[in-house]
Amino acid sequence: MAEKTRYTDEELEEFRQIINEKLALAKRDYDQMMRALMNQDSNDVDDTSPTYKALEEGSVTQSKEEIISLAARQQKFISGLKAALTRIENKTYGIDRITGKLIPKERLRAVPHATLSVESKMASKK
Description:
Blueprint: H1 9-37, H2 50-89, H3 105-110, H4 118-125
């Protein structure tokens, strides 16, 4: 029996559902991060004592930097998921970009935007 070279339309549809669910959650999380950055969800009190304000500024700056870093990472994840949806449309989803073989379903279920099998990823890090 010949080796399978691509996933069936039914399998691709299953992956599309997984990706769309992860994409919805990722967008929700990203929006929450952006609201936090813009203080839209804040119960901030501007009339606190100046001493307290000075101590808080360092903490606020650090928190904002962490949120910015997380938001950038989330944005990259969203882009990866959107690219995976494009690969599904093109019927090239799940094909290892180095070996051309199918990435195992288990990996794609865990990391739906993967473009490399675990073996290819490890080999490329050497």
